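Case study: NAD-dependent dehydratase.
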Amino acid sequence: MNIVLTGSLGNISKPLAQELIAKGHSVTVISSNSQKEKDIHALGATAAIGKLEDRSFLTKTFTGAEAVYCMIPMNLSETNFQNYMHNTANNYVQAIKQAGIKRVVILSGWSADLIKGENIEHLFIEQLDASITIMRPGAFYTNFYFSMDLIKGKGFIGKYLTLRYSGLMALFKGRTGLLMGNYGGEDKIVFVSPKDIATAVAEELIELPVEQLKIRYVGSEELTCNEAAKIIGTAIGKPWLRWVRISDKQMLQGLKMAKMPQELAETMVEMQSVMHSGKPLQNFHRNNPKMGKVKLADFAKEFAAVYNQK
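Here is what the predicted structure looks like once written out:
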């Protein structure tokens, strides 16, 4: 098959490209970064360098393909997040229609149908005459990288949640060994390896029977947040690591202090609040998908290697 992948050489798209190529398929990888071209070719794939905002580029790249995998990159500087999501999804939809693609796999999220605002899934479902699979993975293992500096006690989560003010500092009183978010503690979450997502996407693209519309939930392991924190903590020599849940208000304040655009900050808070509610987990159980192979303890070894280099 001739398959086009978006997502450059990210955590999902790279192993997905490798798996498809290993099975003999012709793969084109879209990237906005021209410096990735050599690495894409090294995998045995064709590089298509361009921007998702460029509909003519997408249409040209999709033309002749039998299937496409679409994802929308997170843009933490986007001031109008809903507009960004809508426009990018619409560019995909129009390019797919013009190119005549009949097999489409879309990366979504396990709480996508539970948050306010426009659900971009419906743009694909309502406008395309194609077989569509919506992928709804749980919380990525790789999200723990955003908390690395907080675990080290530097006072912030990842690139965007600053904790250098009294309201949140009081929650951990300068101690290391905490994770934070407006879900956490004993909340049960389905965590997922991007490698397991890649395997599931590959199945939907090439192996499983084609359906007009399919919603597929993807997970690797179900754990409480504190159980997950202990696994990560044990791998880095901090078995006491805990995951503290802060309020929605505190989370929003932290994101705003870190200069995250208001609309995006509100969306992030809502997504995590929905996870705390347990509704995504109920939907996951209702669909009863088979869990992936990569467990958090496996990822924790990779995390520890990065952690110890910093």
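For the exam, be able to explain this: DSSP finds 13 helices and 14 strands in the chain.
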